[in-house]
Every structure is written in structure tokens, then in C-alpha cells.
Design brief:
single chain, binds fe (ii) ion, mainly alpha, two-stranded antiparallel sheet, Hypothetical protein af1432, about 270 residues
Length: about 270
């Protein structure tokens, strides 16, 4: 009798554990889907920004990896990198950002609101991704405290934001954008060294410019990779995110049932 009771308790515990695991997996998938939806919104608003944030995320992951961050921390860095400019999709900044002429002082001031706007957009996700909003808010802070919007200094700036600040500047220099031509790797290196210890975390700059990280960055620049490319229902190419946070996707598309196939064919 006791054995039957113990068996029943064991079976119930196993079922409960399976159920909890399923709920956890569903929560992860929902989180990733939410982030991908946000990324789609960035693409829909401005494809250039969509490409920029993906490059920044890839570079940020290389730097985070070299800095010895844990898998959990790397995911956090990737999220901050992917959404650091989400504040730019705000309607108030759209005309300014899509105007190729030189920015007026007022326009520059308006653009400087994008970290705060981005942090506000992401605030509801705080319960799930506690570092995301703070990282996005701080990505234009400077190591010497002369950045914006809060003027935070040194290690008071979240690490993800310090990483993103460096790779964001690197991409802005080396990639052609609507309002500026692409400059050489040498120029990017000089700009990062000029900001070492003033604009940027000096240790992270050294790490980013180290041969091992630059080798990985060069590979990403030469082979942006097909893994992020996919097509929407209209056959247009759309972008996806780097793999890390979206690994919940099934490796192969689910097979449709014969019944559904018949219905589609008719
Ligand atoms: Fe920014």
C-alpha cells in the first residue's frame, strides 16, 4: 500500500515538473516573439536602422564574449544592442531622421531624446528583462560623465550600454549611412582610441581593438551571413535577428497535416 502511495506521489511530482517546464518554455517563446515583433516594427519604420542594430548586436556579442560574460549576460547585451535605437522610431523624430540635410541644433536636441523614448517604450518589459530599459537609456552615456541623458559615469553605466556605445560608434564610422559615407577601419580605430577613457570604457576599447576580436569582426563584415535572411508571405526578403535570443524557433518548419494541405490546395 505504501509503495502504491509513493508511486502515486512520484508520478504526480513528475507530471507537475513537466507542466512547469512546459510553462517556462512557453514563457521563453512568448518573450522572444515579443522582441521579434519589436524588431519587425523597427524594420517596418526604417530598414537602415534594422540593419544597423543587427550589425551592432553581432559586434556586441563578439565583444561580450571576449570580455568573458556569461551566456545570461550575453543575452542581455544582445537585447540592449538590438533595441538601443528603438526610441528613433518615435513619430516626433521620423522627419528629422529622414531628412538628408544638415541637422539644426534643435533637431540634434530632439534626437538626443531617443534613449529616453526607447527606455519608455521598453519599460513594460522590465519584469521580464530587467536590464533592457536601463541599458537602452544609458547607451549614449560617456565614461567621463559628459554623456546623456543622465550624465552617468564610469562603471555606474551598465556594462551592456558601455559595450553597445563602442560597437555602435564603430558601425556608425565603418558603414555607409544616409547622411555619411563609410570610413576606413583605421579611422574607426583612431576614433575609438581618441575616445578611450573619455567617451568609452578604456578596458573595453582595448579588448575590442585586440587582434582576436578584430578578426571576428572582420569575418562578420565580410560575410554578414545568410542565417538571418528569410522571406515574408509576399516573397520579400526580411531580416531576422542574430540567432542567440531566437533559438527557440524549431529547426525545421512544422509539417502540415494532410487535411490542411487538401484545404489549402482547393
Ligand atoms: Fe543611439
Amino acid at each position: 500500500m505504501l509503495a502504491i502511495f509513493q508511486f502515486a506521489v512520484g508520478a504526480a511530482a513528475a507530471l507537475l515538473a513537466m507542466r512547469q517546464r512546459r510553462i517556462y518554455q512557453q514563457a521563453l517563446r512568448l518573450g522572444s516573439a515579443t522582441l521579434e515583433t519589436l524588431l519587425n516594427a523597427i524594420d517596418a519604420n526604417d530598414e537602415d536602422t534594422g540593419q544597423h542594430v543587427r550589425r551592432v548586436a553581432q559586434y556586441a556579442l563578439e565583444l561580450a564574449d571576449a570580455a568573458g560574460l556569461s551566456e545570461h549576460e550575453k543575452r542581455s547585451v544582445e537585447r540592449v544592442a538590438l533595441f538601443h535605437d528603438i526610441g528613433k522610431i518615435h513619430e516626433a523624430l521620423f522627419d528629422i531622421l529622414h531628412d538628408p540635410s544638415k541637422l539644426s541644433p534643435d533637431a540634434k536636441r530632439a534626437i538626443m531624446t531617443h534613449p529616453l523614448r526607447g527606455a519608455e517604450v521598453l519599460e513594460p518589459l522590465c519584469a521580464f528583462y530587467p536590464d533592457l530599459s536601463a541599458g537602452v537609456l544609458a547607451h549614449h552615456e560617456r565614461w567621463d560623465g559628459r554623456g546623456y541623458p543622465r550624465g552617468r559615469k564610469g562603471r555606474h553605466i551598465p556594462q551592456a550600454a558601455r559595450i553597445v556605445a563602442i560597437v555602435d560608434a564603430f558601425d556608425a564610422i565603418t558603414h555607409r549611412r544616409r547622411y555619411s559615407r563609410a570610413r576606413s577601419l583605421r579611422e574607426a580605430r583612431e576614433a575609438l582610441l581618441a575616445g578611450r577613457g573619455t567617451q568609452f570604457d578604456p578596458d573595453l576599447v582595448d579588448l575590442f581593438l585586440s587582434p582576436v576580436v578584430q578578426e571576428s569582426i572582420a569575418k562578420i563584415r565580410v560575410e554578414p551571413g545568410d542565417r538571418g535572411k528569410r522571406h515574408n508571405r509576399r516573397g520579400e526578403r526580411v531580416q531576422s535577428a542574430p540567432d542567440l535570443i531566437f533559438r527557440w524557433r524549431p529547426a525545421k518548419p512544422a509539417r502540415r497535416s494532410p487535411r490542411r494541405r487538401r484545404r489549402t490546395a482547393s
